[in-house]
């Protein structure tokens, strides 16, 4: 439970953080809330030579509505996200999911940027960010760029971020039409991490027919994923229980499920189906 020795640097701007990462040539890691990275270091599953602390960078904090997007600074904590009135009003499923993360201490320290950049297969926010088609605003040596959430997570603990890139903020588009959304999760009893979590966004026409469905699942499989087969099964259908049950049966399609001490691969596959159905039900209730 003792990490290997490391150096500590504190960045006062995003540009300085990028410069520090660059100067350590792949040996440095960003430190935000530390609630994923430090446990990994204590278990010696990560041994960065240098930690670049971004915790004091004001530019990375805050929540704003900009045009049709809700923009959340990377250092925004889960507590801030779950309580913010703009988030609750515009994207209630995001506030809801943030409020279900871990316990109060974890929510007060853990950040949105760290949750997504950590790419833990059991984290809650990747599912919500996938269903909302979020975009990550990234700063690197070549300047600023955007990475769509769908292209961001490449595997367990693996993202499209380069070794000297920093997530500055996350842009969550606010769906323009009549829509409903929800997040439902089966949490690990010890940590609160998602053993299965489903985020659902349904765009409905005036008669209640589903024009477009976005469904994303976390926790159950080896990485968070869009459940495209469920989305196809929902499109053009009435938003009712029978349709939800039939569509949710396809929630495990295209994903890879491994077992561990807590749950077998088959059980996780089953949980993905059950929690997809529950999220769909919750969205229209
Ligand atoms: C007991 C416990 C229970 C938890 N339960 C849950 C849960 O139920 N659901 C859940 O989703 N999460 C859970 N978490 C995780 C927690 O919510 C944090 O979101 C998570 O630890 C990552 O955020 P952080 O700010 O702590 O990131 P850190 O630990 O500081 O960093 C995580 C990773 O992201 C990188 N990183 C961080 N910020 C940036 C950035 N801006 N740009 C580029 N890279 C960056 C770091 O280099 C590191 O690789 C739990 C954690 C603990 C300890």
List the strand order in the largest sheet. 4-5-10-6-7
Largest sheet: 5 strands, antiparallel
CATH structural class of the largest domain: Alpha Beta
Bound molecules: flavin-adenine dinucleotide
The sequence of SSEs as H and E is EHEHEEEHHHHHHEEHEEEEEEEHHH
Label the CATH architecture of the largest domain: 2-Layer Sandwich
Describe the global form. globular
Strand content range: 25-35%
Average of per-residue pLDDT values: 96
Structural class estimated from helices and strands:
alpha+beta
Kindly report the CATH topology of the largest domain: Uridine Diphospho-n-acetylenolpyruvylglucosamine Reductase, domain 3
Helix content: 25-40%
Count the beta strands: 14
Regions with pLDDT < 50 over 5+ consecutive residues? none
Q: Please count the helical segments.
A: 12
Question: How many structurally independent domains?
Answer: 3
């Amino acid at each position: 439970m003792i990490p290997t020795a490391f150096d500590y640097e504190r960045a006062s701007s995003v540009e300085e953080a990028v410069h520090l990462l660059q100067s350590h040539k792949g040996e440095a890691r960003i430190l935000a809330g530390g609630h994923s990275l430090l446990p990994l270091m204590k278990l010696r599953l990560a041994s960065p030579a240098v930690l670049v602390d971004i915790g004091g960078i004001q530019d990375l904090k805050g929540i704003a509505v900009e045009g049709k997007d809700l923009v959340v600074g990377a250092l925004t904590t889960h507590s801030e996200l779950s309580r913010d009135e703009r988030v609750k009003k515009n994207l209630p499923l995001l506030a809801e999911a943030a409020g279900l993360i871990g316990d109060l201490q974890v929510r007060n320290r853990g950040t949105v940027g760290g949750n997504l950049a950590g790419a833990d297969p059991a984290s809650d926010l990747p599912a919500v960010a996938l269903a909302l088609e979020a975009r990550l605003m990234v700063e690197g040596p070549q300047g600023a760029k955007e990475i769509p959430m769908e292209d961001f997570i490449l595997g367990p603990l693996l993202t499209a971020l380069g070794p000297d890139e920093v997530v500055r903020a996350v842009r969550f588009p606010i769906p323009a039409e009549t829509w409903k959304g929800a997040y439902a999760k089966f949490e690990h009893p010890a940590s609160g991490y998602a053993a299965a979590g489903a985020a659902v966004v349904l765009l409905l026409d005036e008669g209640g027919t589903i024009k477009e469905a976005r469904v994303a699942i976390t926790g159950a499989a080896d990485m968070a994923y869009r459940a495209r087969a469920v989305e196809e099964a929902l499109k053009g259908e009435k938003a009712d229980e029978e349709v939800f049950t039939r569509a949710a049966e396809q929630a495990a399609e295209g994903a890879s499920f491994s077992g561990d001490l807590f749950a077998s691969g088959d059980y996780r596959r089953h949980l993905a189906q059950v929690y997809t159905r529950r999220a769909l039900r919750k969205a229209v209730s």
